[in-house]
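S1.2 Input.
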Amino acid sequence: MPIDTLIIGAGVAGLTAARLLAGEGRRVVVLEARDRIGGRLSTDRSGAAPVDRGASWIHGIDDAPVAAAAEALGMRAVEFTVGSFQVDGRPIAYYGPDAAPLDPEAAAAFAADVHAADAELERAIAASADGDSYADAAEAALARLDWHPDRLERVREFLRHRTEEQYGAWIDDLDAHGLDDDAIEGDEVVFPDGYDALAAGLADGLDVRLEHRVTRIRWGADGVEVGTDRGGFAAATAIVTLPVGVLRSGDVEIEPPLPEPVAGALAGLRMNAFEKVFLRFPHRFWPEGVYALRRQGAAGAWWHSWYDLTALHDEPTLLTFAAGPAARATRGWSDERIVDSVLAALRELFGDAVPAPTGATITRWQDDEFARGSYAYSAVGTPPEAHDLLATPVGGVLHLAGEATWTDDPATVTAALCSGRRAAERVLGRAVPIEEAWRPSAE
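S1.3 Output.
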C-alpha cells in the first residue's frame, strides 16, 4: 500500500502528527533512528524508580493540551511549581554569598527586588533594538534602579541563572526577546511514573519503524523520497521533526536545500547546553517543606539551584542542572567528577551533614547524535517569529515540526504536541481536534 505521509522522528511532535493523520484514514509510517520512541522525552527505568532524563515538567496545566493528554492517559502527576525558575510563590530556601541562609525577611526583600527588576526588564525588552541580547536588556533595566551595587548584583545573578535554566544559554548569547514566552498558566506538574507514558499513548496503533536512521530527504512536486540505513521510502508528503541540532549538523542531506524563510529561521536558532544531575541520598540533610535550594554569589556560578524531588518516590533526591557555560565546561568530565563538584557546592552550605550519595544520574544530551542538545534557543538577532517561520510548508510536500517550530511556548512538550497537530492539519488541509491524538484507538 502506498504511503501517504512519512514522519521523520518518533518524538511527541512526530507521534502527534502521525496519530492525527492515521485517525483520518491516511497511511502513515514513522521513521525513528533510535531504538525507542519519545525522542527527547526519555525515561530511564534501569533503577528502582523512573528518572526523566529529558522533559520533566508541564509548565502550567491550565488549558494545556499536554495536561489533557496526560489525564486521559491516566498519568499520575505531582504538583511541583518551581520549574520555570520562579523567585517565590513556592517555598524556596535561599543562601547568601557567605553561604548563610537568608531569613524570611531578607528572602522576601530579594524576591521583591526581582519582581521590580522584571517590571523594568519588560519595558527594556520592548524598547530593545534588533541585535540586542538578553544581557543588554537586563543591564538597561538594572540601570534604571537606584540600588546599591551588591543589591543589583544579586538580581543580575538571578537573571543570568534564569536564562541558563530556561534556555541553557549564556545571557549574552540569547536574543533580547528570547524569554518572551517565560510565563506559566496554573500549577506545574511532574510525573513520578515517567513522562514516557505520553509517548507510549500517542504511539498506540501506529506503524513506527525503529532504528531507521534517515540520511537523505529529497522533495519535489511529485512528493518526497527518504533514504535510510535500511532502505528507501517514498510518500506524497513528509513531516520532519528532527531537532534543530540535527538539522544544522548536515547529518541529513536535504535536496533541494531548505528555501527561505525556513533556511533563515534555522540559521537563527541554536541547540543549547543543558544537562540534569540527579543525586539520591540515604537521608535528607536540607530543610523540609521547601521546593528548592538557591545559592547566591560567585560561588553559585555553576551549582546554584537544587530541586527537592523526594516526594516523587519517597527517596531523598536533589536535582540540579549544568546549564549553559557549566554544561559546556563539564561536558568532558566523568560522572564522578561532576558529582564531586556538586557535592562540594552543597557542603559549602551544609558542611559534613552532606553524606555520600547512594546514586546519581547525569544526562549527556550534548553528546547525543540524534539530539545534539536539549532544546533550541534564539540566538542574538533572531526574531521571535523564527520559530513559526521554521514550520513554513516547503513545496507543498514537506513540513517541519517540533518544539523549535512553535512560537507561543517553544522548548516544551506542549510546543512539540501543538506543532505536530499543525503539521497534520496542513497535510490534511483542514482542522482536526487535538484530542484525537490521544483518543483510544478502539474508539
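S1.4 Remarks. Residues 104-126 form the longest helix (23 residues).
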